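input
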Amino acid sequence: MSADFGRLQACAAQLQRTDEKQAPADSSNYGPRLSRNGNGEAIPDRPQLIVLHETIFGQDATIKAFQSRHAADGDQASYHVLIGRDGQRTRLVPDVKRAYGAGDSAFGDFTIQAHQRSQPSINNVSLHVSLVTPADGQGKDDRDSHSGYTEAQYRGLAQQVLIWQGLYGIPMARVTTHAAVDRSHSRYDPRSFRWDRFDSAYAALQSRCG
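output
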């Protein structure tokens, strides 16, 4: 184990002591991480990617949607964690489960087709975290920018990323956005995301960890 990863693990352990609200999604909106595909061949199932998202609706409406039962595959969606406008982290799906955050998706040329009739996707190896959109971004799922995310949200996001990095050894090179992994070219989130503001929040948290 490298010294850098050791520090990340210690930081994650420290950050995990802070509160995480619970709002479990309905079981129709997530599934198991699959260890084999439909042909019985082994496929990766350990978290290797962190995907950043943005909600289309406000926090309460988003949680209500994920807690509603959806029988149709096309209606099923979820994130592992939601970051509220106040920076509060809300747990929707356990890490050990496969959240339905990115349908037709790939990280570079890497993707997984679990079943012959299913879309290739990175969900089996991804952890999905979403920022609650501001009021002027609600109801929109397009390229248009908006007023952006709060400093508290960037801190909450940096905290969640550090926790996951410490738990699973995920490097920053594998922290990406929904827009970057979406192969349908119809997802643009998180819109108005500022990597420089995230980097500042991340560095400040690292410094606090020692």
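quick obs: The radius of gyration is 17 Å.
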